[in-house]
Specification:
Blueprint (H helix, E strand, L loop, with lengths): L1 E4 L4 H14 L7 H9 L7 E8 L2 E10 L9 E7 L9 H15 L4
Antiparallel strand pairs: 1-2, 2-3, 3-4
């Protein structure tokens, strides 16, 4: 299992859309829709994505973000989607650790 940064390539966006279609079939989004959502993200707030790969195949991803819609400053969230056949094989925990590490670095001091 390799956890790497999401590189915003067409390959990564295609993999994200494909995984979302499997994990959340009721919320299907195209690559264009996902890119449009990213384009409207307020860049004053943290957003980072990670990709989980096995032998070059993307099996999951994590979105780590500062929740700008929450009134409490410094509120962060994470969304992790993993293909069903790859769940419980060690991809979510390293993604959570990487997200929490980057949150601490990006958060302003209280």
């Amino acid at each position: 299992m390799n956890i790497r940064p999401f590189d915003a390539s067409e390959r990564d966006f295609q993999a994200m859309a494909a995984i979302k279609w499997v994990v959340w079939p009721e919320y299907r989004r195209t690559v264009a829709e996902i890119r449009a959502i990213d384009a409207t993200w307020d860049r004053n707030f943290y957003l980072n994505r990670l990709v989980a790969e096995v032998d070059g195949q993307v099996v999951g991803f994590a979105s780590c973000y500062q929740a700008f819609w929450v009134e409490r400053p410094g509120t962060y969230g994470v969304w992790i989607d993993v293909l069903p056949d790859w769940r419980r094989r060690g991809s979510a925990a390293p993604c959570m650790r990487r997200c929490s590490t980057t949150w601490r670095r990006s958060s302003p001091a209280p």
